[in-house]
């Protein structure tokens, strides 16, 4: 049966096209998917996962990652921190019946009219060696004692620090004139890296919203799974939190009213100086009066069905 038997216009996008587009974006805009401290400008080999970059990005000297402040060492009396990187290394979309990737057993088989999302991310954090900590500890202790002595008036001068192979800049120890002191990263030789995979399953549906007379297109989350985090209760707690954030915080912002999808073709032609003599509109085919699903998620594609409405004139 032709796709236009119950609609005037049909369009579809295959999952392969979407996934290929995502890969192109990741190569051409790597800074959207990689976040790290400035240390990585000269130490790109320490990223957890090597990422491909389009030659045009290198020639234009566009950023390869988005700079972040070092991870602060909580409780330290001076603003020191650790270098780290955070990378989204893979993103894939799979439409029913599902053949791009397999779902975890917890999510089961990809049901009719469902789509699945797979994300893989990696994070690397510096772990200072014992030798460096042993060098810095006397300096930290000396600084704390000096601050205590200044506070109770035992001394009027700040006690100088102890000489070490690594001494943070003086600006890191005396930031009284700064509102937001800059965190100084400890020297890094290697990172401890770990990666996680997240899977989500969802679908589209039409429905109403309290207080509105319109029909809205909504994206719904059916299930979410993070693969193999231990202990199991911690995994469940994180999954529950992410599910709640998506259902109550993010997806409600993506609902679209039907009227936003109606294109007034007559008005568009008038703006170009052409008069049709009739009112012609293009809008989504109704569910289930015109088609059973719209958009339809099937045959590895997302399909949209539209109908033309012509009114007025002779």
What would you note in describing this structure?
This protein is α+β, with helices and mostly antiparallel strands and 314 residues long. β4 (71-72) and β5 (80-82) form a beta hairpin. Residues 161-165 have low confidence and may be disordered. The protein has helices at residues 15-28, 55-59, 130-152, 170-173, 232-250, 265-271, and strands spanning 9-14, 34-36, 66-67, 71-72, 80-82, 84-95, 115-126, 184-185, 191-207, 216-226, 256-257, 263-264, 279-284, 296-298, 301-311.
Helix content: 10-25%
Mean pLDDT equals: 89
Shape annotation: elongated
Largest sheet: 7 strands, mixed
What is the chains' assembly state? single chain
Strand order of the largest sheet: 3-2-6-7-9-10-11
| Poorly predicted sequence stretches spanning 5 or more consecutive residues | 161-165
List keywords for this structure.
314 residues; alpha+beta; 15 strands; 23% helix; 2 domains; 5-stranded antiparallel sheet; 7-stranded mixed sheet
